[in-house]
Each structure stands twice: as structure tokens, then as C-alpha cells.
Design brief:
Blueprint lengths: L2 H16 L6 E5 L11 E7 L17 E7 L2 E7 L10 H14 L3 E10 L9 E9 L26 H13 L5 E7 L8 H10 L3 E3 L3 H9 L3 E11 L10 H28 L3
Parallel strand pairs: 1-4, 1-5, 5-9, 6-7, 7-8
Antiparallel strand pairs: 2-3, 3-4, 5-8, 6-9
The protein binds hypoxanthine (HPA).
The site of hypoxanthine has 13 residues, from strand 5, strand 8 and strand 9.
Length: 277
Amino acid sequence: MSKRYERLERCYSCFKEKISFTPDVALILGSGLGDYADSITQTAVLDYKDIDSFPVSTVAGHKGRFVFGYIGDVKVVIMQGRVHYYEGYSMEDVVLPVRLMKLMGARVLFLTNAAGGVNFNYHAGDFMLISDQICMAPSPLIGENIDELGVRFPDMSNIYDRDLRDIVRSTAKSLNIPLQEGVYIQLTGPNYESPAEIRMVRTLGADAVGMSTACEAIAANHCGLKTVGISCISNLACGITDKPLTHAEVQETADRAAPLFKQLITESVVNIAKKLD
Ligand code: HPA
């Protein structure tokens, strides 16, 4: 057994000792969206700090715990706060929670984030269904492969599952919530981009930019977790307006968009679960 898998098993044993719950859908909540977990029917909570060998996030506004419970009658695990590469963790640390949620039994990973709008047609407060991604951070799969989870050279042609995207799209439509659709690019951060970098990523085909998500989606695809993702466009990316970017602005817009975002997530999860056999 690889050292990486041994570590994962240690985390999993810790979880199993404390929690008896098998989630179907795993969710990761981005900046400003964390309190969604407080609104679901909770059955248990597990602080990251109480899990042996688990990385603990340092970002203000990010709680650090798994919340277990129900969205409608769907069994979910929600990560309230994620770990970011820019905090100084290795990519292995960053994606460990995704792998752990796979071991917990989750079959779908629902990723959310706050992102900067690169596409000129986007506005602050828009939601974007992620159709595909560009990962400019190092791949989380570098290093010894965890054969227990997946193959050395995994396919990435359908990272954001087509069927799940169809469900989210039709859910948004039925709720009358406008939904953009586009490519998310992950840079390492923690600095926001320069205007020249935003021009570059637009040329590369990105519609939204952020500091998370793509690496988690790669790890999820590697271990066979079907993935879907939505960005909350919290600001227009650098250079589109003259205003300097602040984390407070990102947080404020995400907070304002949160009620609608929560509605979209809730209904999407319920509709996705209907299609799980
Ligand atoms: N750039 C990078 N990450 C972000 C942004 C941005 O403009 N907004 C929210 N996360």
C-alpha cells in the first residue's frame, strides 16, 4: 500500500470511529457560501482538527469542518471551508479531503467557488456552470500514483460530467435563475491577477478565474467521483474596471448572491440524487 493511501486510511479510520453516515453527494463550499451548511438538516459535524493527518485551513471566513446531513432526503457531506494551495499546503494536502469523501461513499462531488469574471459578458453576482477547466496550478496527481484510487494517466475529457451539467442547467431554468456557462481557470494565488494576466487567461479561453476547484476536480475524476461545479462571479477580474480588488468585495458579493446560490444548489442536489441509481 502506498504511503499516500495509508495516510488517507488513517483519516478514514478517524471518520469511521466518530461518524456513522454514508453520504451520496459531497459538496465543497467556496468563499461567502460556507453558512449554507448551517441551513441543512445536520446529523453530525466533524472538525478537521479532530481528524488525524488532516490539513487545516488558515483563511479567515473559512470554517474547518465536515457537516453531515440531508438536503431534502439526499444524504450529503459538506466541506465547510477548503484547503488552498496558496496557504502553503502541498497539492496532496489540498485534495486529500476530496479523496476522503470518496472513501466515505460519496458518488458525486459538487464544487462551488467565488471567482473573478474574465468574460466581458459577465457581471458581479452571476452564476457560472463550469463546463471545463484549465489548471495552471501543479497537478495534484504528481508523485506516486495511488493505485487504490485510480490509474496513473486518467482521462480528463469530461471533468464536469455532461449529465450533471444538464441537470444543473435545467434546474436553474426551472428556478428562473440565470446561469452562465464557461471555462474556469485555476491560478495559484494568493495575489489577484494583473491586467496582463487577465488578458492572457482570456486569450487562453477562460471565462472565470479563481484559486481553487480545478485541482479538486482533477483528483475527483482520478478517483471516479462524478463532478459538477458552479462559480459565483464575485467580481469582475482585474483590468475590466479601474477599481482595485479586495477580499472584502469578493466576500460581500458572494454573501449577497448566497440566498439564490443556496436555492440553486439545494434543488440541483435533489435533482442529481434522483438520477443516481
Ligand atoms: N481572481 C482570482 N480569484 C478570485 C477572484 C479573482 O478575481 N475573485 C474571487 N476569487
